[in-house]
Design brief:
Layout (H helix, E strand, L loop, with lengths): L6 H14 L4 E8 L5 E7 L4 E6 L8 H17 L30 E6 L4 H6 L3 H4 L7 H7 L20 H13 L3 E11 L2 E4 L7 H11 L14 E4 L2 E3 L30 E11 L12 H26 L10 H19 L2 H9 L6 H28 L5 H22 L3 E2 L2 H23 L1
Parallel strand pairs: 3-4, 3-5, 5-9, 6-8
Antiparallel strand pairs: 1-2, 2-4, 6-9, 7-8, 9-10
Helix pairs in contact: 1-2, 2-13, 5-11, 7-13, 8-9, 8-10, 8-11, 8-12, 9-11, 11-12
Length: 451
């Protein structure tokens, strides 16, 4: 079986692990979501040093659940080498043997703590991703019709920088204060491109194993990233958060990033690794050749995101009167948030790059333009997918016509995305294996530095 596990399946598998490895694993509730759903954490090992792994911080990035299970299984087996026979927790067999044991997986040295889903409410609104991406035909069309990504102020890791304190954020802060982890790993995914790692402090020994794992699994390394466009880049696919006075090198809207949960372990000397793996790979993400027309490409991409946003908003304007009110409907809130300047914010943030590219035509690489191309295409698609869902769910007589109009935009956008970036599906077990290997390598590196 090569699909993402649901939140319920991840939790059930964690309970089975605790039963299969008596004494090795403990499962406990560490918080409660806004809607009353449990936030549960699986701990494996009993060492004095703690790693904290956070799965599903974004509900439209389901790979973290598969990675959480693979990590838990691997570490529990190291602690209890002879468990009773049971099916593997991971969604599919690993494509290669497990890495050799290291101090990072020694249960007498390190305790691994895995939050199974940080945003269970968001995951409930993204139910359907697992099914939409499970069949033989893996398409962006099916994915975006099922995906839900909350507004920034409702994303648990990000809400604190928006001056919003969610119970999910508070639960994570409390776990960090309790455990004082030397390493926090946040398990993310991206629709398209390559894999990369963002760090709150450099881990120089991480670059080589990360590259080796990506190469072995056939996943490109992201050589330019929209999330960390101006961050330090000490190695391929490795990006390090600028110091507090480096705000000019942060993406628009992230100037207060120091308030996020990512930076909380720093108060105890810890480091955070945000691990990103692609659902669909694009070999352009790893192409370091100078882009032949970067300034023109950036202007086109800015136009693409603005025009796509304008077209989705035009349909939204016609539907507002009969859609659920934003105060009570999270998808509607996302649509209003995006319509209220987000498309322009994204496009405007590229203007300095376009000016630099005009002055120095060879400055930007194909990989960097590829990263921005992904952003330009996904912003209108995220909004259109949500609006299609809302239109389908209403019985207003105007809804079918608006749904048809938007669908006629949405489907070609998805097809163009797949063709322009030459996308290919990455099997779920490869996605989870890259993330698992990267987390283990980060733990080994961070532990060595700790000692």
């Amino acid at each position: 079986m090569d699909r993402y596990p649901t939140v319920a399946e991840v939790t059930d598998s964690a309970r089975r692990l605790v039963s299969r490895f008596p004494g090795a694993g403990r499962l406990r509730r560490v918080g409660t979501s806004r809607a009353g759903r449990p936030i549960e954490m699986l701990s494996v090992g009993h060492g004095p040093h703690h790693v904290l792994v956070v799965a599903r911080p974004h509900p439209d990035e389901p790979v973290g659940g598969a990675t959480a299970l693979a990590l838990a299984e691997r570490i529990a087996r190291d602690e209890s080498p002879s468990p009773s026979p049971s099916p593997s927790l991971s969604p599919s067999p690993s494509p290669s043997p497990s890495p050799s044991p290291s101090p990072a997986t020694d249960p007498t040295v390190v305790t691994w703590n895995i939050i199974l889903c940080l945003d269970p409410d968001g995951a409930a609104l993204s139910q359907g991703i697992e099914r939409a991406t499970a069949g033989p035909d893996h398409t962006l069309d099916a994915y975006y019709r099922a995906a839900y990504r909350p507004v920034a102020a409702e994303q648990p890791e990000w809400a604190p920088i928006e001056s919003r304190q969610l119970p999910e954020s508070q639960a994570l802060f409390e776990v960090i204060d309790e455990l004082r982890p030397f390493l926090q790993c946040s398990l993310h995914g991206v629709e398209a491109g390559g894999g990369w790692v963002q760090l709150t402090r450099d881990l120089p020994e991480l670059t080589v194993p990360f590259q080796a794992s990506a190469a072995k699994l056939g996943i490109p390394v992201q050589r330019g990233t929209f999330d960390a466009l101006y961050w330090e880049n000490p190695g391929p696919g490795i990006y390090v958060l600028p110091p507090p006075d480096g705000a000019a090198r942060l993406a628009a809207g992230s100037e207060n990033i120091g308030l996020s949960t990512w930076c909380a372990p720093q108060r105890y000397g810890g480091v955070t690794a945000i691990v990103e793996v692609p659902m669909w790979a694009s070999d352009l993400a790893d192409d370091l050749s100078p882009h032949p027309a970067a300034a023109a490409a950036l202007r086109d991409l800015a136009g693409l995101v603005r025009e796509g946003g304008r077209q989705v908003t035009a349909v939204l304007d016609k539907a507002r009167a009969f859609l659920p009110p934003a105060a009570h409907d999270p998808p509607r809130r996302v649509l209003e948030w995006m319509a209220d300047g987000l498309y322009d914010l994204v496009a405007d943030s590229w203007e300095p790059l376009a000016r630099q590219a005009a002055d120095d035509p060879g400055r930007l690489t194909t990989a960097q333009i590829c990263a921005l191309d992904i952003v330009a295409r996904r912003q209108p698609l995220r909004a259109a997918g949500l609006l299609l869902r809302l239109l389908k769910a209403t019985d207003d007589p105007a809804a079918p016509g608006l749904h048809r109009d938007l669908d006629e935009l949405f489907t070609p956008w998805c097809t163009d995305f797949e063709k322009a970036l030459r996308l290919r599906w990455v099997p779920v077990h490869h996605q989870a294996e890259l993330e698992t290997r990267t987390v283990l390598a980060a733990a080994e590196t961070a532990l060595t530095a700790l000692r």
